[in-house]
Amino acid sequence: MSTPHREVPHVPFVPTPEKVVLKMLEVAKVGPEDIVYDLGCGDGRIIIAAVKNFGAKKAVGVDLSDERLKEAEQNAIQNGVRDKIELRKNNFLDENVSDATVVTLFLLTNANELLKPKFEKELKPGTRVVSHEFEMKGWKPKEVIKVEDGNMHHLVYLYVIGEHQ
Q: Signal peptide span per the entry (predicted)?
């Protein structure tokens, strides 16, 4: 049994724009063999798009907020994909992500820092980690993509486990 981590860093809920969601999943080359985890899933938009638009086998959303998880469930039902997603109320530092083939993040730099050793331990080589806006300091991204959304510019970082040193 794993020991619980210290308090999870507070990450405010800021929805990822739809255009960025699609680019994140496209860059990760999500397809029918993938199991996508979104840590801090908010309203579920990334996991829903992963199964609905990219045909992922399964998607798992992890969040601490009952309100966000309820919203994600309602959104999944409305999009007809409730049977392909799992919603878990958990501290993302304590969530076992070892079966993930893709992990998506829109957290903060300090949260990403805390996740790096966990990812290096749990994720298999070749697993794609996609972060919106915040890099994984010390890891070398395979790709950095700029996404224009109206007047906003967003950055999407793609890392591949085993290729980020």
A: none
